[in-house]
């Protein structure tokens, strides 16, 4: 279902009601454009997700980036009336401990005037370093959030030219290559070079449809595959 939005200003809080799919292409672009417009002057956002029946990895990456950008500028984003579909994604990827969720718009708006709730700590950090490379900032934001909430130390880059330097400096245990990076002329050659670099470095290539896959399934599968590589 195509995404439609309805925005309403309540004091200095903007409530954005989302209906339909938050997914790569139209849905993500529509939401990003509305967020860009609304957050130029206001840094407090409530996303009402009662009728959001699907969110893919790119869509969740957009929400993660919004969360980070608003937090860094002194604002915040809160989720309310979260649909069962989105709640399942948040639970499957441990992101329910990152986003603050509320039962109603009123509760979410009121929460801005109260002592902020602190998101839960990361569960069981393993300390393993992971480097993720892709051309999509949404994909990188999503992978970064999911793996960090699972306890990994994550670094991301959109630039293939930085890979050798980052591998040398960080010495990651796993390098994750996104489909955007693999689509670059030199992408596949870079993967083969990484695979030949030694037994201490594991390389994981994400499937072409990762960005458009159900965010819950894609995120849970990603964590499982990284854990298997490190076992």
Structural features, described:
The chain has 231 residues and is an alpha/beta fold. It has two domains: 4-111, Transcription Regulator spoIIAA (2-Layer Sandwich), CATH 3.30.750.24; 129-230, Response regulator (Rossmann fold, 3-Layer(aba) Sandwich). The protein has nine helices and nine strands. Strands 1-2-3-4-5 form a five-stranded mixed sheet. Strands 7-6-8-9 form a four-stranded parallel sheet, sandwiched between helices. The N and C termini lie far apart (40 Å). The mean pLDDT is 91.
Q: What helical percentage do the residues reach? A: 40-55%
Query: Could you please say which CATH topology of the largest domain applies here?
Result: Transcription Regulator spoIIAA
Count of domains: 2
Shape, principal axes of CA atoms: elongated
Q: Uncertain runs with pLDDT below 50, 5 residues or more?
A: none
Q: How does CATH name the architecture of the largest domain?
A: 2-Layer Sandwich
SS class: alpha/beta
Strand content: 15-25%
The rounded distance between the terminal residues' Cα atoms is: 40 Å
Enumerate the strands of the largest sheet in spatial order, edge to edge or round the barrel.
Answer: 1-2-3-4-5
Largest sheet: 5 strands, mixed
CATH C-level category of the largest domain? Alpha Beta
